[in-house]
């Protein structure tokens, strides 16, 4: 099993409080705020870590570049996708690709 799958599986087994703590810690490494797609709304709502939490709920609708490939989290967990803020988290994109095949670059 790859690093990302193992991480998600282990995370699910943890109590909610511990899970939240890990997510908050991972958010500190997220470089989304340096990305051109990241906007004022996302700053105010403290939206981050879309690769694990899921796409932007309130703020980001337009893709104007993505920095995920340079992110330490992407490297640490071997993420295969990007534009998580608009296209959904790594888990969802992997699933969609396995079912439909990806038409997105
Ligand atoms: S891979 Fe992208 S969404 Fe995930 S933490 Fe890094 S910059 Fe944020
Ligand atoms: S997920 Fe990618 S496109 Fe979206 S804000 Fe983060 S770095 Fe930018």
Automatic annotation (TrEMBL):
Superkingdom of source: Archaea
According to UniProt, the name of this protein is: DUF2769 domain-containing protein
């Amino acid at each position: 099993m790859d690093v990302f799958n193992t991480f998600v599986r282990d995370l699910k087994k943890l109590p909610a409080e511990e899970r939240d703590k890990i997510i908050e810690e991972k958010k500190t490494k997220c470089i989304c705020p340096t990305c051109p797609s990241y906007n004022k709304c996302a700053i105010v709502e403290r939206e981050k870590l879309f690769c694990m939490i899921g796409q932007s709920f309130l703020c980001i609708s337009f893709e104007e570049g993505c920095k995920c490939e340079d992110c330490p989290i992407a490297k640490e967990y071997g993420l295969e996708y990007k534009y998580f803020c608009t296209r959904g988290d790594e888990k969802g994109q992997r699933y969609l690709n396995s079912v439909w095949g990806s038409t997105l670059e």
